[in-house]
Design goal:
Strand content: 15-25%
Structural class: alpha+beta
Strand order of the largest sheet: 1-2-6-5
Number of strands: 6
Distance between the termini: 46 Å
Radius of gyration: 19 Å
Shape: globular
Amino acid sequence: MTVGLSHYLRQAWLKPGRDMLQSRMIQWRASEAVTEVEKPLRLDRARALGYKAKKGFFVVRVRVRRGGRQRSRHTHGRKSRKQHVMKILKMNYQWIAELRAAAKYNNLIVLNSYLLAKDGKHAFYEVILVDPQRPEIKNDSTMQWICDPQHMSRVQRGLTSAGKKSRGLRVKGPNRKVRPSVRAWERQGK
């Protein structure tokens, strides 16, 4: 059985070696938090998620700080509800990375994203963005669905794969009430 390039790329990214990522992560940490890249580093994963090497597709690398989020401290008065130092976001890092990419490139729509690497301090994601105004996208039979107005701001509404996972829509069983939304059922969804 013959296998193609995608198979070998997938095998290489199953257990990436230290020499493969260490020098890259040094450069990623020094660069900006949201950086546009020329082409995806994990080509097999990007292609599986809908990326095509044509006009209208953009790939952005996003750096997200790992760990708990710090809450700003109050300065006046005793306010017990503000004494908590840690802020619970109830969102996964991948969804946060997609939101940050969408905020910087607000004329593009987030298609999907995937993990590149993570160290003790940061997690790095590549986010695939699509320009719905390009004629190449409008005429593409597999991608023209994203040009509909209902798909605008889909990442803010948690409709990407990472957003749906973070909202708990893939959980099976009677444990958690997550539909119609996380905020339903007296905010006990999450």
